[in-house]
Amino acid sequence: MTPFTEAVLQIILDIPKGKVMTYGQIAHMAGNPNGARQVSRILHAMSKKYNLPWHRVINKKGEISLSGEGLETQKQLLERGGVKFLNSKKVDLQNIYHS
DNA sequence: CTGCTGACGGTTC
DNA sequence: GGAACCGCCAGCA
Prior knowledge:
Keywords: DNA damage. Helix content is 45%, strand content 4%.
């Protein structure tokens, strides 16, 4: 477990309900400005072992990067938290959390 | 240990 | 405005 991974997990857990963050933002805050991709890897791997709110993480366009059922699951979870959607994939950019 | 993959993002055509 | 390319490096077989 690298410090980067830990930081990423912390940040994700720290995202307030009803807000979302982009991979790039998280990576940058975790101390790795170019580690957006690693964030996605961490999400995938760690959400199985830990109970992570992975659904609060989206790409920079403000869209959900998944498709099919994953997309619907994420959408449901976000809407349940009060996040508004502009369309089936895109999240309202005002819901993006920045500290 | 080695190599491949990828829930991304910035830059360059 | 949009497609293509490249760098980044943590997991996993």
